[in-house]
Design goal:
Strands 1-2 form a two-stranded antiparallel ribbon. A hairpin with a 6-residue loop joins strand 1 and strand 2. It contains seven helices and two strands. The chain has 155 residues and is mainly α. Helices cover 73% and strands 3% of the residues. Helix 3 runs parallel beside helix 6 and helix 4 packs antiparallel against helix 6.
Length: 155
């Protein structure tokens, strides 16, 4: 591994720690970082913390992480963003769902050239596609049914 590559990974490790686990709640094993703190600012906080996630994703792409692993990283980011929509509850979820740490672990495991994606990487991405496809299908079916119910008396 080149020095530049190692330095990039070390920087991402440090930032991931700062965002997800730099601090500990006294008397517990619960760790948190700046992600839930900045997330307290409505709207702007989640966008700001997602920018680090985007940098991590971009660096993973540049380091040659397999595409299916990148898709899994995107799913982690989307889960974090979706939870962040709910005020306060989203910040509590940020303490538990450490998307930056999860994504860094994926990057670290797959950044070496020639490392193949695991079965779990494929399973998570395929499951997400099935779930999203099912939700989209139900929404489209519901819209079709509502339009049909409105138009049917006139036909």
């Amino acid at each position: 591994m080149s020095l530049d590559r190692a330095r990039q990974i070390d920087q991402l490790r440090q930032w991931s720690r700062v965002m997800d686990s730099a601090y500990r709640v006294p008397g517990t094993q619960v760790r948190f970082g700046w992600d839930p703190i900045v997330g307290l600012v409505p709207g702007l906080g989640d966008v700001a913390t997602a920018s680090f996630s985007a940098v991590l994703l971009y660096r993973a792409l540049r380091l040659g992480v397999p595409r299916v692993v990148l898709a899994r990283m995107v799913l982690n980011i989307l889960i974090d963003l979706a939870a962040g929509i709910v005020p306060f509850v989203g910040d509590l979820v940020d303490v538990a769902w450490k998307s930056n740490s999860l994504n860094f672990a994926l990057l670290e495991r797959h950044e070496r050239p020639g490392v193949k994606p695991s079965t779990a990487d494929w399973a998570v991405v395929l499951l997400a596609l099935v779930v999203v496809g099912g939700i989209v299908s139900l929404v489209l079916l519901s819209v079709f049914w509502m339009v049909y119910s409105v138009v049917r008396p006139f036909v």
